[in-house]
Write a structure and sequence with these properties.
Helix content is 80%, strand content 0%. By secondary structure, it is mainly alpha-helical.
């Protein structure tokens, strides 16, 4: 993780905006799932976002890579960062509240630290990060609940599916650093979404059949939001914030997303979370703050 730098007002605004956008995506996905299947929802997400990003590439007149090795890397990235996590999380959202899904999603940063420490020599797991990771995993366990672990049912499976999706995100981050470091971000995102869309088309046809375009207006609005705003445009915003704030500061976005998703789920779908799930998020957030480190360094300097 790169060292944290102080954030400018513009970086803060765009960081918060990114958190708001991604926080709203959980409600949009759940809304679409009222009418379409989980795999079809993923195909809509990757397909429309792919078209938007290739449009951006064309407008910027960026050179498109031709090497088979690069396109193979796009395909693997699409599987790890889109096909697997999007599908697992969409299916999981059928059985658990959107807010809880967003809490589990925050574990991506925790898994990312572990995977990076195993893959890259310059990302060793320090004592501080190990403590943060341990608290993060404990927070996830609290959010799942001991009853879910003792009495395994569909809800328990949905929770584990979403957690598995966050592990896939973490693997995607390591793959992107290793294989796509020299590729412009917009090209990498468009190529990744192309690979994932090519994977999703036969999967959707085999499992859920030919997608229907005769959908309710609310469903189309939800798809437009999570595919175009929360995927295509969010990727562009993500790389802007990354350039201004660095990867360390981007960890903060994982703390913004769950409160947004929880609030929207409560207001729009009358969802509620158990106290243990809120406690789990609090412990997970504490773990993330320890991994981030800046809060603790500030306290040390004021003592």
């Amino acid at each position: 993780m790169t060292p944290q730098t102080s954030l400018s007002s513009r970086a803060w605004i765009e960081l918060v905006l990114l958190g708001l956008i991604w926080g709203g995506s959980f409600l949009a996905i759940r809304t679409a799932l009222d009418e379409i299947g989980p795999l079809t929802s993923v195909l809509h997400r990757t397909g429309w976002a792919m078209l938007v990003l290739w449009g951006v590439v064309a407008l910027k007149r960026l050179p498109v890579p031709k090497a088979p090795k690069v396109w193979g890397a796009f395909l693997v990235m699409g599987l790890l960062n889109n096909v697997i996590p999007f599908s697992l999380m969409a299916w999981g959202q059928l059985y658990i509240p959107t807010g809880l899904t967003s809490i589990f999603n925050a574990a991506t940063a925790v898994f990312g630290i572990v995977v990076a420490s195993l893959v890259f020599a310059d990302e060793r797991l320090t004592a501080r990060k190990a403590l943060g990771v341990g608290l993060g995993f404990f927070g996830v366990c609290l959010a799942i609940g001991l009853d879910a672990l003792r009495q395994f049912d569909t809800t328990s499976l949905a929770q584990l599916a979403i957690v598995a999706g966050t592990l896939s995100y973490a693997l995607a981050g390591a793959w992107a650093r290793k294989m796509l470091g020299g590729v412009p971000p917009v090209i990498a995102a468009a190529g990744m979404l192309t690979g994932s869309t090519l994977c999703m088309i036969p999967l959707v046809l085999a499992v859920e059949g030919t997608p229907s375009l005769a959908l309710a207006p609310d469903t189309w609005l939800a798809i437009a939001y999570y595919a175009i705003v929360a995927t295509a445009l969010a990727y562009l915003l993500y790389y802007r914030v990354l350039g201004m704030a660095g990867s360390g500061n981007l960890l903060l976005v994982t703390l913004i997303i769950p409160p947004v998703a929880i609030t929207l789920g409560a207001l729009v779908r009358n969802e509620s979370l158990h106290p243990g799930e809120y406690l789990g998020f609090a412990v997970l957030a504490l773990g993330l703050s320890i991994i981030d480190g800046r809060l603790w360094r500030r306290k040390a300097t004021t003592v």
